[in-house]
Request: fold
Amino acid sequence: MAATSAHHERLRTLDPYEFELFIAELWSRRGWETEVSQRSVDRGIDVIATRSNPFREKQVIQAKRYGEGNNVGSSEIQQYSSLRHQENGVDTVVVVTTSGFTTQAEELAGDLNVKLLDGESLSAVVERTKATDLVEKYASAVTESSAPSSSSTSQETSSVDTDSKEMGTGEAIISVIQLLLIAGLLIYAIFELLTNLL
Reply:
């Protein structure tokens, strides 16, 4: 258990985009073909994972590198459940976090068929997949590139957590706009159908 906790803590040091890259590479090790969305056009989808063995399957993954105690809530799960409509042929929406989920988020995820993987479970997947070298690869890159003093490290962690929350709000706005566009298209299609019938 100590090893999984160590992985868990080291993954929290990654910046959000590096965490997405880590998740894509971890899924690749598990037999999936993965594609990391570009930051500017991800539409809320961080990683697209597909595999064809034993059958064709497609997952869209939302990767949330959150600090301890900053759990993913039910409003985020509701937002992420709509990701399946942004990509063709999606079987599963997966939300992976270095933190945890609120009780309400877990209940809503069950209702909306969103799969959840919290920090401890993610660390266990790393162990089962024998992917501790990936943790080392990504965490070492962070350590080498930034080696600041301990006081500036806590300030940077705090600002990264704030950025993650702001990204969540931006993603929520994009999802609402997309849902409104879909609703508008459906209303237009129904109007056209009724017009043609009359």
In short: The two ends are 68 Å apart (CA to CA). The chain has one domain: 2-197. Helices lie at 2-11, 16-29, 74-81, 103-112, 119-129, 132-146, 150-197. Confidence is low (pLDDT under 50) at residues 147-167.
